[in-house]
Amino acid sequence: MAHLNITARTVSSLDQIKTAALVALVPDRKTMPAPIKALDKLLNGTLSQTVRNGDFTSAIGSHCWLPGAAGIQRVLLVGAGSNDSPNVASDKKLAETLAKALLVGSATEAVVWTDGLTQKMKQPERLLEQIALQLALAHYQYNHTLNHRKKPAKALKRVAVSPGSLCALAAARRALQVGAATGEGANLTKELVNLPGNICTPRYLASEARKMARKHPKISASILDERKMAELGMHSLLSVGNGSDQPSQLITLKYQGASPKSRPYCLVGKGITFDTGGISLKPGAKMDEMKFDMGGAGSVFGAIHAVAAMKLPINVVGVIAAAENMPSGRATKPGDVVTSLSGKTIEILNTDAEGRLVLCDALTYVSRFSPVEVVDIATLTGAIIVSLGHEATGIFSNDNDLAESLLAAGDRTYDRGWRFPIWEEYHRQLESPFADLANIGSGGAGSITAACFLSQFAEEYKWAHLDIAGTAFRSAPKGATGRPVPLLVNYLRERAGAAL
C-alpha cells in the first residue's frame, strides 16, 4: 500500500509558504479573522469575492478551490463552521471534506494552514488527529487484483500541517502520528478484508502475521496448525474447516511494549476467510461478500499494527481463529456434536453459525496468557444489522467498566458502538438435549444469543464481544471500512495511559 507522509511544521507567515496546495480552514464568522484577511489580500480579494458569490459558505462540509499566488500554486478553502465548541462529529466531517477534496486533486504535496481558527478552540489535538486519520483513509485504494484497470497512484505524497496557535508543535506531532498510525492500521484491515477468498486463505493470514513480526521488532508471531489444534482439543474450531481443502490456522500475534511481567490485553478475531454457510448453505445472492467474514481478524491485524507504530507502553496479544467454511463430504453436518477446547460439548444445529464455533476455542485458548481484558471482534450475525443498521457496532460484555471503556472509545473516535444485554433469560435458548449447549438460539434475539454462547467460554476474565457485521464492510460501494480499528486503538491507548 502507498504511504502518505504526514508531518507537523511551524509556518510563521503566508509569504514563507511554498506549496502545490494550501488548505485553509475557514471558520464561520461575521467578520473574517485577521489571518483569513491576510490570505484574501494575498489572493487579491478572490477569497472574499467567492464568499460574496455564495460559492463558499464556511459551513462544515463546504469547500472550494481557488488559484494561488506567490509561492502557493492553489488554495483549497475548507469550511470549519463555528469552531468554538467543536465535537468529534464536526471534526470528522471537516477532516473528511479536507481529505477527499485534496486527494482527488493533482497536487503532490500540501500544507494545511490552521491560523484562521480560534485560539480558544477546545481539544485541537482531536481535530489534528482526525485530519491525519481521514487523510490516511482517503489515500487508500485497492489494486491487488487489478491489472489492465489498475488505478493510478494518488498524486498526493506529503502533507505538512501547521498547528498555528492551536497547540504546541510537539502536541501536534503526537496527534498527527496517532491519527496517521490509526489510519494505516485501518488501511491494512481494509486491504486484508477486501482480498478475495482464493488469495486471503487461513495460510495467507498466517504468512501476513509472520511478515508483520519481521517488520516490527516488538511483535512476534506463532501459528498452530490443524494437528497441533487437534492435540489441544480444539475440535469446535476444527469442525468449521472440515469441508475445506484449506487447512485452518490459529494465529497469535504478540506486541510487547511494556514489561514482560505486565499482563496483556487480548484481541480475538474471527477469521472466516470465506463463508458458504457449509451444509446450511447460504443463498447465492451476495455470497461473494462472504470474503468479508474475516473482518474481525483484519481488525486485529490493523489494531496491532497501529499500536506498534505508536509504540504504546502496553502488552497486546492478538489471536485469530482462521478457517474456511465449505460444504463437502467431509463437512460438519447439522446435528453433529463436537467437544470444544473448554471441554464443553456443542450441538451444531446450523453450520452457518460458524463464527462462534471458531471463537469459542480461541476464547478458551487466550486464558493461558492471563489477560487483563479480552475483546473479541467478529462479523457474527446479520441480526445486528436489523438492530443497528450500518452505523454502530454491537457491544456485549460481562464487565461494566470494560463495556463503558469501549463505548467511550467509540464516542471519542466517532467509531461508535451500542451495548446489548446478555441476561440469563437469553442463555436458556441455547439449551440442548444432546450437548452442553447448542450453537444457535431457539427464538429471536440472534445477536444476543450468539454473544451469550461466547460468554460461556469467557467466564475466567473480563470480556467483551464486538459484533461488526454491520460496520466492517459496505455493499455499495462494495468494500471494507477499516472499522472498528479506530475504536480498538483508542481503547488500547486509554488502557496504556496514553493522552487522549
Can you put this structure into words, describing what you see?
The chain is of the alpha/beta class. The chain has 2 domains: 179 residues, Leucine Aminopeptidase, subunit E, domain 1 (3-Layer(aba) Sandwich), CATH 3.40.220.10; 296 residues, Zn peptidases (Aminopeptidase). The protein is 35% helix and 21% strand. The protein is built from 15 helices and 19 strands. The chain has an 8-stranded mixed β-sheet, sandwiched between helices. A 6-stranded mixed β-sheet has the order 1-6-5-2-4-3. Helix 3 packs parallel to helix 4 and helix 12 packs across helix 15. The radius of gyration is 24 Å and the shape is elongated. The two termini are 28 Å apart. The mean pLDDT is 96.
What's the short story on this structure?
35% of the residues lie in helices and 21% in strands.
Topology of this protein?
Elements: E1 5-8, E2 22-27, H1 34-42, H2 46-52, E3 63-69, E4 72-81, H3 88-103, E5 109-113, H4 124-139, E6 158-162, H5 169-194, H6 202-215, E7 219-224, H7 226-232, H8 235-240, E8 249-256, E9 265-275, H9 295-310, E10 315-325, E11 337-339, E12 345-347, H10 355-365, E13 373-378, H11 383-388, E14 393-397, H12 400-413, E15 417-419, H13 424-427, E16 437-438, H14 446-455, E17 462-467, E18 473-475, E19 478-480, H15 485-496
Parallel strand pairs: 1-6, 2-4, 2-5, 5-6, 9-10, 9-13, 12-16, 13-17, 14-15
Antiparallel strand pairs: 3-4, 7-8, 8-10, 11-12, 14-17, 18-19
